[in-house]
Write a structure and sequence with these properties.
7 helices, 37% helix, N-(5'-phosphoribosyl)anthranilate isomerase, 236 residues, single chain, alpha/beta, TIM Barrel, aromatic amino acid biosynthesis, binds the ligand O=C(O)c1ccccc1N[C@@H]1O[C@H](COP(=O)(O)O)[C@@H](O)[C@H]1O
Length: 236
């Protein structure tokens, strides 16, 4: 099984970008939602992106922005992927991505009464809406939209959907290994769990989180190898 991809979100400082890259993050995220304590202007994001080496995906997070606003932002900050974290409908999400000419991750904010079938159906709707959709990102429903460090019940995620989703919401060094082992998501996304304070990341927490995710990956690998090694040879 391929290793779990890791995104560190809500970066506002060069040293935090460097810490995420040094720890082995696959993606980093910039929050373009003005009400967030992690908000950066497109110009600030552009300066931070200039510090990012190739093959690390720079992501822009938006909440209820218009297609024109998103397009104007990506024209200044060279982000590769959009994360739509607000109340945008499926059709609006597709229109925003088309206007910005960027692939997007659509966020589903999970509530206690969300049914597993809701997630599968929503993913199908996103896929049908156009070619820019990449993956569902699952986060916990909170009034502030996200970045609240609050988790949800992972058992709501259908097994067949898990390998395609980005798991988010309340992740930390304490639950990352279990998250990978139990859910087996395509990727994980974290913000508050690797912070010293809102908008200020802690390099040691980032490194510890990445190590905890990799520990989960190793457990999955070992289980797979054990299954193969213990399989009886087929008699001829
Ligand atoms: O980070 C924010 O301030 C934010 C604001 C509005 C919407 C989403 C936001 N962050 C995203 O929320 C999830 C969960 O974060 P956490 O790890 O529980 O703090 C994550 O995808 C962030 O990118």
């Amino acid at each position: 099984m391929a290793r779990t991809r890791i995104k560190i979100c809500g970066l506002t400082r060069v040293e935090d970008v460097q810490a995420a890259v040094a720890a082995g993050a696959d993606a980093i995220g910039f929050v373009f939602y003005p009400k967030s304590p992690r908000y950066v202007t497109p110009e600030q994001a552009a300066a931070l992106i200039a510090c990012v080496p190739p093959f690390v995906t720079c992501t822009g997070l938006f909440v209820n922005a218009s297609p024109a606003e998103v397009a104007a932002t990506v024209a200044i900050a060279p982000i590769a992927l959009i994360q739509l974290h607000g109340d945008e409908t499926v059709a609006e999400s597709a229109a925003i991505a088309a206007a910005a000419a960027r692939p997007y991750v659509r966020v589903f904010r999970v509530k206690p009464d969300t049914a597993p079938a809701d997630l599968l159906e929503y993913e199908q709707q996103c896929r049908a809406a156009g070619p820019w959709f990449t993956s569902l990102l699952l986060d916990t429903y909170v009034d502030a939209y996200g970045g609240a460090g609050k988790g949800f019940d992972w058992s709501l995620i259908p097994k067949e959907l898990a390998p395609r989703v980005v798991l988010s919401g309340g992740l930390s060094v304490h639950n990352a290994t279990d998250a990978v082992r139990e859910v087996r998501p395509y990727a994980v996304d974290i913000s508050s769990g690797v912070e010293a304070s809102k908008g200020i990341k802690d390099g040691r927490k980032i490194a510890a989180f990445v190590a905890a995710v990799r520990a989960g990956d190793d457990l999955i690998e070992r289980a797979t190898h054990h299954e193969c090694a213990s399989a009886a040879p087929v008699p001829r």
